[in-house]
Amino acid sequence: GAVVSQHPSRVICKSGTSVKIECRSLDFQATTMFWYRQFPKQSLMLMATSNEGSKATYEQGVEKDKFLINHASLTLSTLTVTSAHPEDSSFYICSAMRDRNYGYTFGSGTRLTVV
Amino acid sequence: GENVEQHPSTLSVQEGDSAVIKCTYSDSASNYFPWYKQELGKGPQLIIDIRSNVGEKKDQRIAVTLNKTAKHFSLHITETQPEDSAVYFCAASRGTGANNLFFGTGTRLTVIP
What we know:
A: mainly beta; 4-stranded antiparallel sheet; 0% helix; B: mainly beta
């Protein structure tokens, strides 16, 4: 199959702290992974494209210094929300494609609450 | 870039009836069109997809149709069951691992027992 594991599933942090979210492709290698953000009752909005061994590509309006992405291996991409504020509270989801036969597989998401 | 529109935003059907959700896209280079089911607090789950070289694909109670000329595609769920209740998203992509998905706005489907 094509399994993407995301961790943690839920995290609560204090304002001003940083939070790291991990996205792993368990049974395939992913040169590219994608990070999405989803507000309640809304669609998924692409934040950035994570490229193994190179810098991430951020969508317009997404602060790269606030949402740090590291794709250090072919099976792991991390998203770090730095100096988190309550408005960063959201559902963050990663995805990757194994190949054309499997399509895009999504992680289970991370519910971030900043208090 | 790609713009995907989805209708309706909410849909209620009686158990056993059919449900149809429609999407349009703008980028003629898009060639991969998946549909996802998302339950509360979970990531999207792929339920069916279609590529631009076919016009229809069916998997048991679920089918997807694609009209590439008109740039629209639809999801059809027959014999709906309460467990089909969820939010459904359509998406479009250029179909390789390096190209991201563009999502529709979602349809909240409620199947009434």
